[in-house]
Amino acid sequence: MHQNKHKNTNRHQPVLLQEVLTYLTPQQGDTYLDVTAGYAGHASEILARTQAPQSAVLVDRDTEAIEYLQTKCDPAVTLLNADFLTAAKQLEKEGKRFDCILADLGVSSPHFDKTSRGFSVQTDEPLDMRMDQRQSLTAADILNSYGEVELIELLKEYGEEPKARQIATRIIEHRPLATTKQLADIAVSVWGRGKKHPATRTFQALRIAVNDELGLLKAALPIWVRLLSPGGRIAIISFHSLEDRIVKQAFAERSGKRYDAQLKLLTKKPVTARPEELVFNPRARSAKLRAAAKINTKNTEGQ
């Protein structure tokens, strides 16, 4: 549905696609789980290699993404409109196992492109930021109801914002806030204008809080590992240090020279985009990929 906007066609470029294919090495007949399928950038390439739509599960919490996938995917593919933690719990309960699991964290390009969703610092939109539009909590709710200390902590922890205190104070002075421009202007009034928009960290912090991104990731990671078949591979792409740290730690705790190791690391350090990808896909600049394989032993947890 977004594809027909000519200016957007290049926005759906999946980041680190070649690297994902290298580490997941999808083979014909493999079972495949994509926990953040979005607009099928990675999924269409992986499904072309597995040739097994009946063994694929694509998950997204965004109803618009699921509606798009319904038009794009083979009807044999299972689509789940849920956050990736809810989906992972359901699939584990059903006893499912997968040869390839992919998580491409963060916000998909159409979220930034589409007005009314409130993700972009560049446009004037309602303060929404919900990835799942069925949930009630919005960015406006947080900005207009949190106390000063809560706002400062949120901006520091999720946005790594050095001027969290000044921004929180101004938010409270200007309440109620209704639009993204009002919030962006507050950050500009604190920072002045720079090469990077001064509201970027504030928007990131709010988006993470609205969607509980880090909480869901911490809870979902152990389940994803259990959902892997023996010898199965998992690849996770993150877009900021907070996510990457959680993934790095979860992988480290389950790998290495230990009797109960579940994973073998395929990436010693995060893989980043090649210069030639950045030319046509600038969003890949902050992307970091980590990958691991499930150790193929009889006593691996969850078997």
Structure description:
The protein is α/β, with parallel strands linked by helices and 303 residues long. It has 2 domains: 6-110 and 213-294, Rossmann fold; 115-211, Putative methyltransferase TM0872, insert domain (DNA polymerase, domain 1), CATH 1.10.150.170. It contains 13 helices and 7 strands. It has helices at residues 17-24, 41-50, 63-72, 84-93, 109-113, 139-145, 148-159, 164-173, 180-191, 200-211, 213-227, 241-253, 275-280; strands at 32-34, 56-60, 78-81, 98-104, 228-238, 263-265, 288-294. Strands 3-2-1-4-5-7-6 form a 7-stranded mixed beta sheet, with helices on both faces. Strand 2 (56-60), helix 3 (63-72) and strand 3 form a beta-alpha-beta unit. Helix 4 runs parallel beside helix 11 (213-227). The N and C termini lie far apart (40 Å). The relative contact order is 0.14. Mean pLDDT is 92; it is low at 1-11 and 299-303.
Record the SSE blueprint.
Layout: H1 17-24, E1 32-34, H2 41-50, E2 56-60, H3 63-72, E3 78-81, H4 84-93, E4 98-104, H5 109-113, H6 139-145, H7 148-159, H8 164-173, H9 180-191, H10 200-211, H11 213-227, E5 228-238, H12 241-253, E6 263-265, H13 275-280, E7 288-294
Parallel strand pairs: 1-2, 1-4, 2-3, 4-5
Antiparallel strand pairs: 5-7, 6-7
Question: What's the Cα radius of gyration?
Answer: 20 Å
- The appropriate CATH architecture of the largest domain is 3-Layer(aba) Sandwich
Class by alpha and beta content = alpha/beta
Shape: globular
- CATH fold description of the largest domain: Rossmann fold
- The CATH superfamily of the largest domain turns out to be Vaccinia Virus protein VP39
**Whole-number total of structural domains:** 2
What is the mean pLDDT? 92
Q: What is the count of β-strands?
A: 7
Fraction in beta strands = 5-15%
Report how far apart the termini are: 40 Å
Largest sheet: 7 strands, mixed
What pattern of helices and strands is seen along the backbone?
A: HEHEHEHEHHHHHHHEHEHE
Number of helices: 13
Per CATH, the class of the largest domain reads: Alpha Beta
**Uncertain runs with pLDDT below 50, 5 residues or more?**
1-11, 299-303
Strand order of the largest sheet: 3-2-1-4-5-7-6
Helix content: 40-55%
